[in-house]
Fold each of these.
Amino acid sequence: AVVSTQSTGEHLQSINPEIALQYQERLVEVFNVRNTEVETDLLTTLISKVAEEWPPYSGKLAAGVEIPCSPGSEPGYLGELRNKLLHYLEVLVNYKAEQILRRIPHEIPLYHERAILYCRLGPGDYEKSLALYCHVIKDQEKAEEFCRKYHQNDDRIFYKLLKMYQSPPSLEVLGFDRFKVDEPRADMDAAIEVRVKHFRMIDKQEALALLPPETRLADVNRLFCAILKDTTRNKRQNQMLKSLHLFNNLQVKSQMMSLQSDQFIVEAQDNCCVCNKKVGEAAIAFYPDRRIVHYGCMTQGDPQPPRTD
């Protein structure tokens, strides 16, 4: 009888979860088994292991024994597990994101993992990923990287980033009311930064319409300077391209005039260089070395090399 990978994994899970994790990793890494069942099981096991290792680490954080660190670099086995979890969430493509999200305990702050999973659900949940990067993780660079990565799927994603900083939705609207995080607050400095850095990706009229009346004049000046500088640069590039096209056009015309001025006399008694028959009144052509050939003979090849004298 054929035993499925799922039943094998479940059996190993009941005996020793650590062995089950090693088995699932080997399926993916060594045997390159990439399907929904295997990938979802691997990620579910990793989340369960991280949840087991989290409470001692959380207690040390609360006591001041440990200091917060970047995800995946936590001390001991927890850091190793979380680093694997983040890696597989990024590289695997067949797992069920909804199922994985349901397995993450709300009391454990795996917000980087949630941000990855929300974006896997599709453009409709990009706002949740942005909210996590902007107001929970508080990493503007990550938020901008996310927008660059998914701009092909949602051409208004930079505008959404701007709105997320300027007028963020509430935790309840985002569905984050069960998380132990502060209510999002507007960050006008970050909003201005997004306008200045990514104005090409945002409709300028929409970006300007969102500016509140209390916006500092210096910030407005930064935005207009960036737009004008870009416009000037584009104008210069277009002028250079126009000059290059004009120069190329003049070169082509000069070559054409040179070729058209090259004339020589062909008489009916002249012979074709391919068939050696007189050209008569037939259609003819000539090679660069001025040898005459019947137009119909050109397809038969050029048996004699061109003269160089």
Amino acid sequence: MYMRDRKWIKFSFFFFSSRRRHTRCSGVSWARRCVQETGYDTSFNEVFEISQSQAIKLLQHPEIGLYLQTLTLVFLVNKRNLEAAHQKVKDILTQIKEVNKRHLDMLNSIVYFYYARIHEIRNEFDTIRNTLFEAYRAACIRHEEVSQATLLNLILRNFLHYDLYEEAQNFVSKTQFPENKLNNEHVRYLYYLARIKSVRLEYVDAYSKVMQSLRKAPEHTAFGFRVSAQKLAVVVELLMGEIPSRQIFSNPEFKTALHPYFRIVQSLSLIHI
């Protein structure tokens, strides 16, 4: 469903016995059981030895604790345990503000993504708009480009979710996507721009943006995104007075999802004839 959600775990954590100083832990036993429940890759096999004192020393670093809590958050969201996920993400955000380290940029962006996703599922997306603005402002000040890109897209998604296209356009006109472009976030950004421009009747620019997003999108994943972008491309092309190519509708991947659009194109073709 989401491009971010594929490589969730390649780290297996461990539980220690109070009676033994050293514990030999297999990544297969615990981690594989967890990832099988959520459908992730189980091909890895890691065995390691660690002492309890070493583990306690590791957990003194805030990065380790935040990483493990983020894994827990992803697990809760995938299990649709939204109440627990909501509380967990609030706790993580509080810790992030306390730690405030720039090298946690990537991890921060993942947490904010799930923070917004949880509220969207709970139909509370509008309640976090100010929080997203504050986080985006802080990311710009600290030059955290990954968080900037993620939060920029989350704010645009928030606006478009409530059909606030003018507000979205004003926000785009006053911001700039980070230079060091993350491909997946840039793809989302292009798609949101296409939606904004199509509503503003700027069909040529809208079609250019949505086609860019389709070309940059992953080929074998993000099926839902590619379908949505392809639907938008077909609609914009029709609004430009052109007939979309039949090759789009003959693609086995999109054939079922685009069938209603194909019927519309067929009707318009008959009218032209």
Amino acid sequence: MGTIGAMFVPIRKGVKQTIPIVVEFGSLTTRAGFAGEERPMIIRHTEMGRISKEPLTYLPELETSFYPYKEEVKIFNPFDNFSIIDSDAFEASFDSIMRKLNLAPSESSLLIVEPPFHNRDARLKFVQLMFEKAGLDSVSLHKSPLLTLYVYARENALILDSGAANTFVTPIVEGFINSKAVVKSDIAGEFLTRQFQEKLTSRGIDLSPSIFVPPEAGPVSHDFEQFAKRALVREIKHANVRLMEHKTEHLQFNDTTDKVSFDLPDKRKIDLSREIYDVPEQLFRDIPEHNFNGLHNLVVKSLSMCDVDVRKELLSNVFVVGGNCLVNFPERLQWQLMSSPNLWNLNAKVKVFTRGEAYERQHCNWLGGSILASMSSFNQLVMSRAEYEEHGALLIERKCYA
């Protein structure tokens, strides 16, 4: 695992030197690792398992820990829009992260990545749990679009972050988020996953539990079955769906030459047809029931709420990140923006940027946190346990958002 060049791990006087850790609790994926690294050491589902019979048991590592309980496990997410809804489950999840990183919380400094939209009550609860439950030495929270700027080294940018549950468009001017112009939509990765699953089911493709668990292993819970199905559909989707580089009213698809095959876990092959193009096209179509008319129009809407004198520069600095950045996503977004009559009066040169590798786009926010937490100035942005005990959780507002 590589490290980021020219970074400096902060040294706090009178305290044992430690490398800060960076954690991002995404709606689908949790990422955790050490500052200065190029990739998170831990990448796992944010969803957890719960065995309700006494004693109550939490299973934070679904990939490895819930198979023995497959008949009785309940799968849930301890977060709702980044707000913690089950403190005990969150504590179990965070404890397992610290064990995997082999760290003592009392000697650890933490940077938490938070989304552009985040309410103060949820943030303060995070800080309270980190000090009182997890027992951390110091904590800092930073919004994901600002962390993305550390990766791209820009002060002015329009960040389009399309993840699992939400897509955000965030304008940043001179290093500050224009919070009044942040736009959010629930058309994102999991919306496409559900659409893709419906397409496969309508074609009679078998996604029953027997694919994942041999019959001799016994029955599985409904939660187990749904979790496994979604995971498989995501895998198929990520491996095969792709966007056209420009809008096409009538896709010319030849079932003989254009279809692709995918190997299921039970060794069967399935053929994928038009759905590999039809499903992602919804990112740029009207979906009235979701008050959505295309990702490009989210960008237009965000720009319209920015000062006129910065719109041209922002449109030349559009950065695309997130796990929902599919094949040809940046090219298609650029084509849609250049074709939008709502932007012609700006006479701007549209430029859409993204990272070259898929993992870089998926983990861009975490990587920005890794860069920030590696800097010598990071010490000035953290809230120590002593400060929490003296001033309470509200101090985090001044420490991190001054």
Amino acid sequence: MDETCEVLEIEETGRGFRLAFDIPSAFFSYIIGKKGQTKQRIERETRTHIQIPRMGQEGDIVITGPDKKGLTSAKTRIDVMVDSARQRQQFTHFVSIPIISKDVQNGFQDFKLDVLRECHGDRGVEESIFQNPAKLHLTLGTLVLLNAKEVTKAKELLTECEEEIIRPVVKDTPLMLDVQGMEYMNDDPGEVDVLYAQVRPQDGSSKLQDIADSIVAKFVSSGLMQKDYERVKLHCTVMNTLFRKDPAAGGVHGSQNSPAEKGMKGRESFDAMSILSKFEDFKLGVHHVDTVHISQRYSTGSDGYYACSASIKLP
């Protein structure tokens, strides 16, 4: 991490210098270390004193010392530890595009009934692995938001995305999608964990892909999101074997390195060969992309979709 790329608000005091900054309390233990050894090492090597709020309490971390260089070095080391620890946290929120028009929901219900009727008896195919139609969506990226300040920061970023990214691309033209065609995540159609519907703008443009990639890039640059792929894989999950054990999972995938994704190894896959043969081109319906959400994981709002921390409207 380049110590010169961030402008730090370092105050001069009668005894030297002081730097205060906010970090969620979930990361305090990483900075303190076993028996305080990590904190003590940073203090010793940077000739600073680091003040951390009591465990479980939110508040600023305060670094003091005789020179600015020591404060900057200590802050950089803490940032590196926090970035590493954040990647190991289960995500709390995700940026999503709801795909819940009545047309798509009705088409999904028809697809579900047809699959259960025509593919009954295929290994692993059962009602429990189908998505909740009120929660059909595209996941653009996942977020680890661990205190109110980080949620506020994410809200502000989404608002900036509306003005800087979305409006210049869509202008005043509604973005209409065809939700059609079934695909699977892995290489073997006989051993599938996730089956999804493809989405395509009706005008044949790359507008949706461009918007998704740009939103993710903005959130990644803020430090709130981890970049897993070069481009966002736009897909609407319709069947997911995670639902067998956890109906609240909602078809939202985190980083492959996250604790949640590592725990997916014990999943029971299903045989999708018959489904793909019979329903490969199935059309769920048409959807008008009119909202982008910051959605709360493991939640349900009053409309049946995920509880919304922030949202922006499209034409």
